[in-house]
Specification:
alpha+beta; 3 helices
């Protein structure tokens, strides 16, 4: 599907499944040239994490967002490049700038500077991977809609934020 021009959006485990697997069952998809850092340490915890907009702040997915974002994180993968010569390199359009580590059995401090939001091509298709949870983060509704449009190959769109009600503006 993706190879023929479709789109793939992976969040959390869905992101981990799209990269190079760490065992046979997790190696079936591999459509993004990445690998999970410390897969045994994905049980990092739940909380808010800081992101920095990465190397491509003008990417259509990021339209309307600048600098740093605070997002919800729930045991997401930390993804590094796998350096597979057959698959296109990914672009980290946002990176983690803080760490979540509630579990005392996992390595602390590995998240900052690593990819948090990835875009990539796969033959004629497009992929977006999230190491955090945009679908549960208030204020990222526009970003998520822009992700769907980009992954679907729809370019040149403008998503206008919904106007706030008077009650929301006064709070």
């Amino acid at each position: 599907f993706v190879k023929a021009g479709g789109g793939y959006i992976g969040i959390g485990a869905g992101a981990a499944m799209a990269v190079e697997g760490y065992d046979d069952p997790t190696s079936a998809l591999f459509i993004v040239d990445g690998r999970v850092l410390e897969p045994q340490n994905m049980d990092r915890g739940v909380g808010q994490v800081q992101l920095s907009i990465g190397s491509n702040p003008s990417h259509p997915i990021l339209q309307g967002y600048k600098n740093n974002l605070t997002v919800n994180y729930e045991h997401g993968p930390v993804i590094l490049k796998a350096e597979n010569p057959v698959i296109e390199d990914f672009d980290a359009i946002a990176t983690f700038s803080s760490d979540v580590c509630e579990n005392p059995n996992v390595i602390r401090g590995i998240m900052p500077g690593k990819a948090a939001m990835i875009t990539s091509g796969y033959f004629d298709g497009r992929c977006v991977l999230f190491g955090f949870n945009p679908e549960t983060t208030p204020g990222l509704e526009r970003l998520f809609a822009q992700t769907v449009m980009w992954a679907a190959g729809i370019d040149g769109y403008t998503i206008t934020p919904k106007p706030q009600s008077i009650n929301q503006m006064n709070n």
